[in-house]
């Protein structure tokens, strides 16, 4: 492992050297060689005497020091900032307790608002106080560690000092200044100097890591650059160094990815976010749990990089770090401890532990300093010293009062006062900062702009990025281009060879209309994509990379031509062992209790994944009951299952929030509560075999992590087998486990065996084989990872721990045990039929429970339902009032028919509403519920289809009422009104079934929307409205017969217009003079016996007026629409509906189930050859 790491680092240095330089002859090279050098090497030799970057002894930290020294000579101290905050109080709008909205409450709310307005009832806006009068000072060059349990206000505090107050209210008495620059001026003029790194990672998934970081480096490149490098050269060089700093060099050409696009691992994506903010070159940085998902070494390396940045550039940083190890803690200068939104300490890290020990709290042996400080804020974890139980503060208010009366607080206030006097708000420091900003800004940038690039440069940069995104997403671009080209050809073929006369005038107008309509429908597909990009664009605006306007303009222009260590395999091992591996080749054999595996193994094991995926509209109790009801055997009554759920809630300490809605990470349960729920869902299933846990403590504070691990210990003591991977384990948590599997790169075993009391067995093994002694205060887990990665200190060569294990007696003992187990006869227990079943409950019970949850989900998402109703009602009224009560002329009937055509256009929008929701539910099912065999895929698809239908029916009722009476009137007989209602209702049910048909097969909503649009436009163009069937080319004549919209338009038109007489308008009337001596009737008597029209003035001897058609049935006959075929048309629509449902089931099986079964069929496991990480 150590050799691998050493080789990797050397390779990174050499790769970096070869990128930035061409030769290594030093200052004695010839002038010709000097000219061939890379500019960075020339600058290096000119300004420094350090080892150049093209040398194999190049040190990136030394390079950073020299580079920054040169830059500092240009900018001086103007950009060095600190932050002073005094009496910071933050409030949030809304009540602390919010009621989950439902469809009913959404309907009642407007009525309640009107009542309040009429009776002059004032609506009081509730505000919840989150932070209570925080004080502190972070000077330039200092690091501040923010500690507190989830929900204590760490994120809010970091956002406050950076000015990210979306939805938050800063108390007017609060004071924040940045070394002589006021809060308001900093936010308005120098926002790029204060940035905040949020916990979630938002990136363009199709960009590579290198492209993502080069965008950031280019956007924040100063106008005066090292060695007069171009912006492109500067960006590439700086990105190379930053990627080496954060160990991302190997992923330079790998896409960042997301939950839909395959890319780098979660830990690597987190490091991309850190590197991106580093390239922002801000003077003040706030990092919100940025070590989440990183292993101990990566987390320490990140904090050390902050330390290096603070030391070299005199920047200052505040970071909230959960589960901070002792080396991480010691890297910071100051620490502040938060307790339920109150500040209970701020001061040097070296004094913090002593402060609380003096208060009367006891620190346990080997307990990390950060763990001890966080434990102080948890009543269930802290322990008072003997004799101090009655003297120590207990509530957050008591802690705050103790802090405000302490000498440490008085000292802090004195430092703040001196700092404010040294850097008054008189404009002096702001003048310096403004001069430094103007020096770094490009030409033609407004002095007041917070961006370094001009608008033209920003648009150009965004254009390059948009081009790269399109190039990396070839499938999407090709699909868009193909659909648009094919649609253009099809529309052209529909109106091919239009006569160049007045007869073709209407057809030419139809071509223009269809071209505009099709492009507008295609534009609607961009809405979902733009919404997904919004967090990225907002982040880049906050980092002052580019203005959102530049991204929007670039997008418009781009659309014109075209429409152990993180990420190394710990999760792979658990996926294989839990039979959830869906890719790769797996070899070997896996036995459970001496028997082979069957289809029931997945439901008999519990798997707690890293990602906390849940139905966001359910409560905690409902989610646990759902798991228990479907995964426990049918022999257990529902009352017993629910009683066990209450036991799980009590065991996990979730009584206080068991009725809380899960929600999403932005609004709902916090990280700790979501992780507890994830564990609870698996426990509620009562797994018979064992429980797998993949990073169960990721993102949690040390106390929450301890609580979870202590609970796992309790399960193990009661006979439950537990297999877990954990990032950054503390010494106390590490010792909760009995045995350890330690793996090196390539999935090779370094150690497998007992950990021992106080980790003695593991430490003895490592030290016996050459590792340095473990210090008494050192965390054994961190010590273990360090010695395995780096080898023993003082050795000239690293230790090959894999070879040592292979030759060790401990390994031979393990092999002997495995041989004994495999060769010993095993009396398998009697296995009943139930034990072999893939699912615990029968299909009927599965369908009932899943449908109940899905109905509940829809009811608790009023925004989705109200959007549906608004689409139908507004579209119906808009079309209805546009063609209000059309008369009985030819044009009136044409308008009536065209109104149906326009109403059909909402079909595409309805489909685009349904598909993203279906695909998000499919992700939940396929990632969590299908692998655990909670319920069958047939139940999933049927439930999704059935639950959508009542809401589509409601939408049909509203649309019919808003459209029918405004177009056809209210005087028609009830039978006709009822049949039109059935057609409209069936149309919306058909749209739902069509959406599920497409979504069942496609991997993403974008591709599904494009395919659905193509098929919809085909059906829309051929329904006989824009072009009469008799005028259609042969292909379109066939499409006219297979288009479902043909029967929808025909059925409604025939039902609503049958028997209505036609009264031609003056413009439609055919006028001619009768022969002398004859009346019009006499002249046309023989003609009218065979003519379809009607003569208006029989007895006139002058001008005759003839209407070409008598009734609407004649007009409809020209469109192949007949009153006699109305029920046939209605039946055909139901046939299409049934076809869509069966097709959705078949396509889901073909594209989603069958590949899954093939990947899992016959797989066996051998973890010895799977892992590529150590943990």
TrEMBL record:
Keywords: ATP-binding, Cell membrane, Membrane, Nucleotide-binding, Transmembrane, Transmembrane helix, Transport. It is found in: Cell membrane. SUPFAM superfamilies: P-loop containing nucleoside triphosphate hydrolases. Pfam families: ABC2_membrane, ABC2_membrane_7, ABC_tran, ABC_trans_N. GO terms for molecular function: ABC-type transporter activity; ATP binding; ATP hydrolysis activity. Residues 112-365, 524-770 form the ABC transporter domain. SMART domains: AAA. InterPro entries: AAA+_ATPase, ABC2_TM, ABC_trans_N, ABC_transporter-like_ATP-bd, ABC_transporter-like_CS, ABCG_dom, ABCG_PDR_1, P-loop_NTPase. It is a multi-pass membrane protein. Residues 1-38 are annotated as: Disordered. Residues 16-38 have a biased composition (Polar residues). GO terms for cellular component: plasma membrane. The keyword Amino-acid biosynthesis does not apply. The keyword Transport applies. The chain crosses the membrane at residues 475-496, 508-531, 865-885, 897-919, 939-967, 979-999, 1006-1026, 1132-1151. Belongs to the ABC transporter superfamily. ABCG family. PDR (TC 3.A.1.205) subfamily. This is ABC transporter domain-containing protein. It comes from Penicillium arizonense.
